[in-house]
Structure formats: C-alpha cells, structure tokens
C-alpha cells in the first residue's frame, strides 16, 4: 500500500507520514515548499518528496491520498485526486483509523500551549517508562522526531481545533476520541474559519462529547470560556488545575519567572519542580501535563524530578543565541495572550535589561486584523517593538505602534527590520522574535550577526 500525502512538510502531516512509514507503508508526498527541518526528517525515513502540487506528482499506483487542511478546491493536486476517483482522506481521519484504535489516547487541546504541553506529557510518560506513541505539532527537543508509534499503551496527540480538510470542516480534534483530554485554555482565534468565540466553544463542546464516562477531562480552572463549554453538558469526571483559582492540581510559584514552583494535589504538597521553562503559562502547562499523566496511571510525585531534564520544543521560547550582555529568543507566539505571557515570562527572567520584541503578524487572524486592538496592550512589557508590516497586510500597523508604551518601529520587509534591530540593540538587551511561521529565518540571521 502506498500513500501520497499532500502538504507533507507541515508538522502535523509530516508526523502522519512518519507514523505511516513506521507501520511499514510506502509513503511519498508533495508540498508547495519542501523545506527543513521536516524535509530532512522525512528524507531520512526514506520518504520521497516532490515540490509543488502538480497533478503528475501523484502516481497512478496510489492506494490512498492524505490531504492536508491547507489545500482547497482549485488546487491542481486536489482536482486530480477528485477527477481520477482516487481514495482520499484527511490526516486526522487517517490517524484515527490507523493508529489510535486500541490505544489510550491523551489529547491536548487549547488555544495556547498545545505543543509544549503535548511534548511535556509525552516526555513524562516516556521517562516513567511508559514508551508512549505521540504526534506533536512541533519539533520536540527531547525526542528525535515529532511523531512515533511507541510500544506502550498510551498515545499523546496535539489536538487542534482548526478545521480538518476542504471536505471536512469539523475541528481536527473531534476525530481522536481520547480517554484523557486536556482543555488548556480557550480564546478567539482562527478568524478565517470561526465567526466568533461562541463558534469555537461549540467545537470544544463537540470534543468534550467524545470523551467517555470512564475517561478524564483535565481543565484549566481559571478559564471562564472553558467553564461555559462544560456548562453545555459534561459526562466525564473533571479534574482542574490552576495557580490562583481553587483547583485539584495547584502550583505555588517559588520563583517570579516560574522556573521553580511547588505542586499541590487536592491541598496536599507533592513536591517542588525546578526547570528551565519561564512564565506563568509554562507552569499551567506543567500542571496540565502532570495531571494527565497521573490520570493515565503514572506516579505524579515520581514525575516531579523529571521536569529538570525537560528541554521543551523548538521555537517555544527557545534561547538561540547568547552573547555577552545580549540574549536572543525565538518563540511561536502569534496571539495577543500568548505574546503577553511570553513577554511577562521574559521580563521576570531578565528583569534588569531592556526587552525588545520583534513581531511578524503571520496567522490568518493577525493578517485579517482580528487581534489588532489587543496587540498594543499585549506588547506592553516590551521596551521596544519592531513590527514586520508587509505591503499585503490588510490593516495599518501604525495603529499598534502609536499605542505602544515604549519605542516602536515598522518595517516593510525582513532585511529592513533586521537592519533597524541591529541599530537599536544595546548591551543588556533581551530580544525575542515572535511568529508562527518561518519569519524568513530572521531570528537565526540576527543571531549569526552576534558572532
């Protein structure tokens, strides 16, 4: 059986390809841009990659075509699949039918923190000798791939609320039918497919409906939107986590930047965590992962020392360069809440120098201007902001820059942005690049100039 995967270089679809290959299937794929690190990871697995979506890239002997959600009608490869009557499916459906049956599925959902929490949960189960399978929508630093089948009963999946495919407009996470589900947080996002917050809450409730009564929901006790979701109906035992709100799993911060905290379970102290992550949001991710691991039968107290070994996921507040008196981070933040929590965490970790934020508004919601009014307040912890406003941006970036507390600059291209950044930085600064895309390599291009 041979699979052709359209959109294979995306982190999710690349993970699907790796799992299919591990099952012994012949796999090939196409993408608009065949690029590292996913391309090198897939080529190392013996997966042939083709650039572009030409109809002829799909051979006549394909048993099935797996179509990513970035492709739509009018795409030449999609039209060829339909015209030739080839069998096709989505990545989420393929995973649900070919990998997840018979497994204890732990699904991590939420507007923010899915990749880090999924990575941490898989890491904890792995180090507790659970040998989990996983599919993570990022590059975990503690594993050599973003997906594997695993030999244990557990399978950890990053559960995205984005739609499944051009022919299936349900959220991807409704396919996974987990026994244990984390609801990390919920905010308005994906303005290209959801008209309002209520529409996203409805999809989260569809997800809640799929968790069995013998399972477990691990829910952020501090999120009013999630409370509304559960109020629509819940048939599964719920365990909550939080820092300020009363919860089953709680953390008491022992360091302002979240690098040390004490864990309490139902009021009883379990012990302290010391780790390299920063920010209040990271502590919340930690509580969620710990609670889910415990729900799967693992010893929570034995897990606490393991946090010190956790290296996180690439591009999740990743320190990529450190010169004398200057630090450069690369982060995936692309929603105002994530931007604010990232900056708050860095401010707590590096309280003495200036904080310089470099932002690419790349997500569909950002480009549509859905979060424009929230951006300036989210950037308040930064002393200086450089904003990449390409000519095709649908709204005026100066409405954000003019409302900033600190210094602000707009650049129309990456080269100009990097030149302004080089002129701006000074000893003692912490620089953080934030984008959910490649940013034309800007973070590492700037890091290389530091020598």
UniProtKB/TrEMBL annotation:
- Describe the location of the Mur ligase C-terminal domain by residue ranges: 315-437
Looking up InterPro entries in the UniProt record yields:
Mpl, Mur-like_cat_sf, Mur_ligase_C, Mur_ligase_C_dom_sf, Mur_ligase_cen, Mur_ligase_N, MurCDEF_pg_biosynth
Reaction(s) catalysed by this chain's protein: UDP-N-acetyl-alpha-D-muramate + L-alanyl-gamma-D-glutamyl-meso-2,6-diaminopimelate + ATP = UDP-N-acetyl-alpha-D-muramoyl-L-alanyl-gamma-D-glutamyl-meso-2,6-diaminopimelate + ADP + phosphate + H(+)
Q: Which domain of life is it from?
A: Bacteria
Cite the annotated pathway: Cell wall biogenesis; peptidoglycan recycling
Q: Which residues form the Mur ligase N-terminal catalytic domain?
A: 3-97
Enzyme class, first EC level, given as a word: ligase
Please name the GO terms of the biological process aspect recorded for this protein, alphabetically.
cell division; cell wall organization; peptidoglycan biosynthetic process; peptidoglycan turnover; regulation of cell shape
Per UniProt, the keywords (alphabetical) are:
ATP-binding, Cell cycle, Cell division, Cell shape, Cell wall biogenesis/degradation, Ligase, Magnesium, Nucleotide-binding, Peptidoglycan synthesis
Q: Where does ATP bind?
A: 110-116
Q: Which residues form the signal peptide?
A: none
What cofactor is this protein dependent on?
Mg(2+)
Q: Where is the Mur ligase central domain?
A: 108-293
Q: Which GO terms describe its molecular function?
A: ATP binding; UDP-N-acetylmuramate-L-alanyl-gamma-D-glutamyl-meso-2,6-diaminoheptanedioate ligase activity
Q: Name one Pfam family in it.
A: Mur_ligase_C
Q: What is its EC number?
A: 6.3.2.45
UniProt xrefs under HAMAP family: Mpl
Give the UniProt family note: Belongs to the MurCDEF family. Mpl subfamily.
User: What function does this protein fulfil?
Assistant: Reutilizes the intact tripeptide L-alanyl-gamma-D-glutamyl-meso-diaminopimelate by linking it to UDP-N-acetylmuramate.
Q: What is this protein called in UniProt?
A: UDP-N-acetylmuramate--L-alanyl-gamma-D-glutamyl-meso-2,6-diaminoheptandioate ligase
Origin species: Denitratimonas tolerans
Gene designation per UniProt: mpl
């Amino acid at each position: 059986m041979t699979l052709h995967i359209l959109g294979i270089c995306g982190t999710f679809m690349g993970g699907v390809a790796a799992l299919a290959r591990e099952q012994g299937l012949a796999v090939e794929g196409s993408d608009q841009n065949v690029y590292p690190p996913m391309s090198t990871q897939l080529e190392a697995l013996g997966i042939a990659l083709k650039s572009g979506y030409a109809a002829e890239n799909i051979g006549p002997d394909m048993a099935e075509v797996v179509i990513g959600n970035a492709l739509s009608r009018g795409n030449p490869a999609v039209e060829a699949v339909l015209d030739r009557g080839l069998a096709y499916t989505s990545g989420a459906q393929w995973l649900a039918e070919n990998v997840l049956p018979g497994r204890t599925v732990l699904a991590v959902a939420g507007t923010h923190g899915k990749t880090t929490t999924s990575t941490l949960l898989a890491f904890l189960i792995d180090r507790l000798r659970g040998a989990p399978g996983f599919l993570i929508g990022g590059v975990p630093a503690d594993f050599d791939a973003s997906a594997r089948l695993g030999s244990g009963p557990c399978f950890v999946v990053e559960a995205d609320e984005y739609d499944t495919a051009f022919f299936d407009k349900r959220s991807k996470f409704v396919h996974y039918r987990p026994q244990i589900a984390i609801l990390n947080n919920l905010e308005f996002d994906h303005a290209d497919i959801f008209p309002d917050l209520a529409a996203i809450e409805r999809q989260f409730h569809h997800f809640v409906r799929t968790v069995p009564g013998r399972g477990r929901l691990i829910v952020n006790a501090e999120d009013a939107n999630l409370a509304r979701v559960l109020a629509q109906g819940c048939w599964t035992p719920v365990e909550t986590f939080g820092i300020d709100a009363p919860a089953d799993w709680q953390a008491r911060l022992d360091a302002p930047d979240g690098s040390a905290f004490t864990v309490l379970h139902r009021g009883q102290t379990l012990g302290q965590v010391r780790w390299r992550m920063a920010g209040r949001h990271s502590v919340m991710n930690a509580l969620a992962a710990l609670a889910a691991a415990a729900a799967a039968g693992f010893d929570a107290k034995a897990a606490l020392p393991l946090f010190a070994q956790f290296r996180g996921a690439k591009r999740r507040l990743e320190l990529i360069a450190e010169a004398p008196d200057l630090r450069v981070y690369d982060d995936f933040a692309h929603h105002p809440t994530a931007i604010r929590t990232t900056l708050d965490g860095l401010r707590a970790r590096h309280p003495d120098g200036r904080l310089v934020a470099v932002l690419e508004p790349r997500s569909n919601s950002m480009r549509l201007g859905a979060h424009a009014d929230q951006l300036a307040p989210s950037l308040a912890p930064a002393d200086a902001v450089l904003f990449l406003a390409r000519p095709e941006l649908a709204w005026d970036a100066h409405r954000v820059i003019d409302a900033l507390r600190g210094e602000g600059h707009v650049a129309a291209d990456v080269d100009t942005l990097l030149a302004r950044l080089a002129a701006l930085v000074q000893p003692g600064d912490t620089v953080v690049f934030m984008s959910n895309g490649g940013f034309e390599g800007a973070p590492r291009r700037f890091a290389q100039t530091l020598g």
